[in-house]
Amino acid sequence: MSMNLFFQAFAKEDTDAMEQDPSLVDAWVEGEDRCLLSTDVGTAWDILNKLLDGAGIGGGRFIDDVLSNGGEVIDPALVKEHAEVLSRWTHERLLDGLRGLGEGDDAYHLECFQEDEQDLLDEFDKLATFYREAAVRGLAVIHYAA
């Protein structure tokens, strides 16, 4: 079974409430009335995390015991930082990094993305667009693997 990484953007007040009361997380993430923006990067999350040095993925506060595998909350200030960092990446730079990875790098589904580089670029574009839109709207983000 493959693990995908999902992203949902919420008003800061909602993520604050979820951090205070983690029992809200599953219902609000699975419901459709509070999430303002969403995307996923499929199985490209590990490779993107390695290539982008955590931009768009790392740096949030982890909430354990929610969403089966836990979830990470990224506040609006860090969302804006991620959007800025991601906007400086080019497809060429991303592909150079991908082509520099080898068998010893042990990245999840590496071979698949080496065989279909466009798929990795598509997932990167979704991530960058998501963060750009979330930053413009001043939203916080929760991401989780499932």
Q: In this structure, how is the largest beta sheet organized?
A: 5 strands, antiparallel
Question: In percent, how helical is the residue content?
Answer: 40-55%
> Spatial order of the strands in the main sheet?
2-1-5-4-3
Strand content: 15-25%
End-to-end separation in angstroms reads 10 Å
- The tally of helices reads 7
How does the helix and strand content classify structurally? alpha+beta
Low-pLDDT residue spans: none
Overall strand count: 5
What is the 3D form? globular
Q: Which H/E pattern describes the elements?
A: EHHEHEEHHHHE
Radius of gyration: 15 Å
Structure explained in plain terms:
This protein is of the alpha+beta class. The chain has seven helices and five strands, in the order E-H-H-E-H-E-E-H-H-H-H-E. It has helices at residues 12-20, 23-30, 45-51, 76-87, 91-99, 110-115, 117-136; strands at 5-10, 37-40, 61-63, 71-74, 140-145. A five-stranded antiparallel β-sheet has the order 2-1-5-4-3. A hairpin with a 7-residue loop joins strand 3 (61-63) and strand 4. Helix 1 (12-20) packs across helix 2 and helix 4 (76-87) packs across helix 7 (117-136). The longest helix has 20 residues, at 117-136. The protein starts with a strand and ends with a strand.
